[in-house]
Amino acid sequence: MWLLQLTWALAALGITGGSGSVPTAPPPDTASIFADLSAAELRAVRTFLLSRPELGLSPSHGGSLAKNTLFLVELLPPKKRQALRYLDQGGPRPQRQARAVIFFGGQAEPNVTEVAVGPLPQPSFYRPLRFKGGRSIPFTARPMTQLEYELLHRVLAEALVPLRRLLRDTTGFWYHNGTCSGRDRQRCLTFSDVAPRGLASGERRTWLVLQRFVEGFFLHPVGLEVLVDHRDPDPRRWAVQRLWYNGQYFSSPQELAERYERGTLTVAHLPQPPARQLFSSYEPRGHFATGTPTDVHGAKVCEPQGRRYRLRGNLLEYGGWSLAFRLRSSAGLQLFDLRFNGERVAYEVSVQEAVAFYGGNTPAAMQTKYMDAGWGMGSVSYELARGIDCPDTATYVDAHHLYDADGPVRFSRAICVFELPTGVPLRRHFDSDFQGGFNFYAGLEGQALVLRTTSTVYNYDYIWDFLLYPNGVMEAKVHATGYIHATFYTPQGRRYGSRVHSHVLGNLHTHLVHYKVDLDIAGTGNSFETMDVSFENISNPWSPGARVVQPWSRSQLPQSLAARPFCVRRWADLTPVPRRYHLAVTRHHDNEPSSSSIYTQNEPWQPLVSFESFLRDNETIENQDLVAWVTVGFLHVPHAEDIPNTATPGNAVGFFLRPFNFFDEDPSVASLSPVIVRPLDPPTFSRLQIQRWTPASPGPCVAPGPFTYNGTYREE
């Protein structure tokens, strides 16, 4: 059995394995069937689709929304059955194909269509892809593009002309009709948009939060929010429908401007931001009371005898572990064919969705229900900084995305791999003789291999980690950092968060992250078992009349769908928030590859992918090919210490995959890194036998001398 353990759950949840062969670890070539598309393959797909006259594709940038454009190209993974036939049985190599998303805006009934394109690297066909249920994709469900933002900017700049005096008088900034760069940037306003975009299916109405365009502008709302209807492909038909300023609603910019001119408007005058040490910047300010140095480098990770992992293409190997990985433009990291000592543990472990539900008094805050796959969560994998985002010793991997672009875009150092000292032994024991000495000491230092990327979804930065431990444990973890989603402070807003600066409210919100865990333990025929701990009060068998209270374990094998709800009462009645679960276990189906989609953000009322439909099947889950869907999350009530950014300590969640009676013993006994110390002359302890299977000293980057130990504890 392999144990699936949530970091905050009490119940033990496991997957039991059936009979099956034990295939050997795959060579690098087999891992490549899961590799992301290369820049050449991305270009080939785009060139092929643009050459098809019936599609009528135009460049993405510039022009109108009323045109047909190629929005996204990424790998279309092979069907699981085909992949396993190739990996385990020597079957034919699956044909390499791409998934392409096309916006058909240049027709009477605009829509979005997905197609499979192949075979790569020289495509010659395309065919439509269908969602479960066969529904078409509404044009209003499409993600935002750079072109649509540019058009929104122009419409907003024109609409806010009547408010130029109000904004200049109260903020010292105004909204420019054009580029905002150079000296003008010092007095520019910008905006952030929230979603869902409307209140019902088919709408595309977005609340925009006006902010000063300074460093960390997310923390500089000016008190004005604007609702724009931009449903029509023709921006000439877009319109401002409502405005909110400093706690009051207005039907038009003219109404707000007239109220200001008449002197009947309650205004908020904002102080001018300083030129240096702005509160939203990273510039150092203040001091630590102890005076200990911070102007020198802190502790670093080093590899004294070189790397202990192997990275070949998208195949990663470490100790007993091997896996293939990719970075989807749509949703982020995806692991395939995860094995330990050559035996498959999971066919797929992947990030599915990250959502954040907000509350607030302003219209933008109360409307905000972010679903980050709809913002290209995997495509915003910007460069990782050596020595900060990843240790100096890390290996870096570039990524190529074709997402809202007219060609592949290279993201340097988008992924990093490194071995991390955990700072705590993997295991250790001091065997005392209870007379001031010891019988032996043994310990194995703790290390893990980390596969990491980040997603900067506008204000928030998510740090995505998969950690591999030598004892057969895998950890999936995400840290939340970056800027909080903040709105303008009013006294009525206090119940929805904290006042983090003079005119800034940090809005409370809940983060939820969804993972897919397709476990294949000793084959695909698995069952789901829960283990709960209860207490019993029984008669003491060896002392009549006495009682014993003790724990006992109870195991169950649900035969049909298993789901454990996540705050169902809190979220069940909220529209458009879907119900979420700590854990749901379903049977694998090729038409259920993911629990969300890039369209859910802008069409949450009738989502193209409804996770609830996965659960309605109520199929048997005994001795079947099973998928565990895991939700982890936390409540974030922002506070002053979230300025300038939310810090990672205390803002991380995840889950573990742990072997449970799968091995005969801890598999990390195969490691040659333990140290064993035995006294040779007790009780004097002047001579010790130190056993180790690595060099006596790790090298000058850690400590120049060899390992030493004493182990005695005596009165002085």
From TrEMBL:
Q: Which residues carry this modification: 2',4',5'-topaquinone?
A: 460
Keywords, sorted A to Z: Copper, Metal-binding, Oxidoreductase, Signal, TPQ
Query: Where is the secretion signal located?
Result: 1-20
Q: Which cofactor does it need?
A: Cu cation
Would the keyword Oxidoreductase turn up in this protein's UniProt record? yes
Q: How does the cofactor attach, per the note?
A: Contains 1 topaquinone per subunit.
Q: One Pfam family, please name it.
A: Cu_amine_oxidN2
Limits of the Copper amine oxidase N3-terminal domain? 184-247
GO cellular component terms attached to this protein's record: plasma membrane
Q: Which residues belong to any copy of the Copper amine oxidase catalytic domain?
A: 300-537, 580-668
Q: Name one GO biological process term.
A: amine metabolic process
Q: Which residues form the Copper amine oxidase N2-terminal domain?
A: 41-124
Spell out the catalytic residues: 372, 460
State any single GO MF term: primary methylamine oxidase activity
Q: Which PROSITE patterns match?
A: COPPER_AMINE_OXID_1, COPPER_AMINE_OXID_2
Recorded hits in InterPro entries, A to Z, give:
Cu_Am_Ox_Cu-bd, Cu_Am_ox_TPQ-bd, Cu_amine_oxidase, Cu_amine_oxidase_C, Cu_amine_oxidase_C_sf, Cu_amine_oxidase_N-reg, Cu_amine_oxidase_N2, Cu_amine_oxidase_N3
Q: What is its EC number?
A: 1.4.3.-
Q: How is it modified after translation?
A: Topaquinone (TPQ) is generated by copper-dependent autoxidation of a specific tyrosyl residue.
Q: Which domain of life is it from?
A: Eukaryota
The UniProt family comment states: Belongs to the copper/topaquinone oxidase family.
Protein name, please?
Amine oxidase
